[in-house]
Amino acid sequence: MTLARYAQLVLGNSSRKVKLSLSALLAVTLGVIAAFALSSPATSTVAVSAAAPTTAEPATAAPTTADPTTADPTTADPTTAAPTTAEPATAAPTTADPTTADPTTTGDSVLSKAVAHRGIKLNPAWPKTLTLLTDSVGLGVKDILPAALPDWTVDVRGRPALMLKAANAELAADPAPVGSVAVVALGYNSLWGKDRDRYDIWAAQFSREADALIATLRQKGAKKIVWVTLRDPDPSLIPPAALEQAQKYNWYFPYVNEQLDALAQRDPTVTLADWAAVSNLPGLTYDAIHLKTLGAKLMVETIKAGVGLPTTSIPGL
């Protein structure tokens, strides 16, 4: 074999080896590229799944959208302001002040409220005789009432703590007649249950006794009957020293006045001289009930109004 031939063989083999090496290198390179391409989608998928929590983050923001529910109480504040809109209701008593302010004008305006029910009209042809049947309250006018009616014969009958039933029994037992006009100033000494306990029972008893007394007065010659209502003053008018007495008794005076009103409804001939309406003034009593001189004068004028006689203004009222 010649040297040239040997060299040709060697170079030929080397060329084939190089070709084989290049082919192998190309195959490896393509494999790497393919592997990289195949691995890229997996990375993309992870990125999406990793980003998914960020899309869920708005769910953690939901409480901030719920904040308006915590703001509702601030919208409810106007309900706490409602009392300020209700204040006019507390101002209503100021509109009632004129009822207490009336007496500060003239005596005539005071006495304009003196008759609640007119009853039968006074007949000038009747004898000018008047009987006052009373307890300790009306006894406060026993001297000035006759003086205020100089043309009349005035007969005062009564005693302290006189109750209706006893008054009727004593009147029936007295042989003397009564005046053509009978004035009844009773009711302060009557029986009632506090806070209207058994009110119907006590009211029925009062009504029976009142009706019986009126029947006896008529039998005794009374033609016109005037009943004087009970004083029920504003608490501010009660002297401090009389508060205990007022708390003990005054609570049922409105009950009596209710029944006197019912009496006048049952018997329209009966007149109510409304001492309750007239006497809501200071300085009339030395306690909550019994009369000072000024109070006695005003009660006399109230009785005169009930009878149907002209009244006289009282200085200072």
What does this structure look like?
By secondary structure, the protein is of the alpha/beta class. The chain contains eleven helices and six strands. The protein has helices at 3-56, 62-90, 92-101, 107-111, 144-148, 164-173, 199-219, 243-249, 253-266, 275-278, 293-307; strands spanning 115-117, 129-134, 153-158, 181-185, 224-228, 271-273. It has a six-stranded mixed β-sheet with strand order 1-6-5-4-2-3, with helices on both faces. The model is unreliable at 6-107 (pLDDT under 50).
In a nutshell, what does this entry contain?
This protein is an alpha/beta fold.
List keywords for this structure.
6-stranded mixed sheet, Rossmann fold, 317 residues, alpha/beta, 2 domains
Question: Into which percentage range does the β-strand content fall?
Answer: 5-15%
The CATH architecture assignment of the largest domain turns out to be: 3-Layer(aba) Sandwich
Distance between the termini: 168 Å
Q: Label the structural class.
A: alpha/beta
Alpha plus pi helix count:
11
As a percent range, the share of helical residues equals: 40-55%
* Form type: globular
Uncertain runs: 6-107
> How much is the average pLDDT?
77
Give the biggest sheet.
6 strands, mixed
Strand order of the largest sheet: 1-6-5-4-2-3
Task: Give the SSE string.
Answer: HHHHEEHEHEHEHHEHH
Instruction: Give the number of DSSP strands.
Output: 6
Radius of gyration: 53 Å
CATH-assigned homologous superfamily of the largest domain: SGNH hydrolase
**The CATH topology of the largest domain, please?**
Rossmann fold
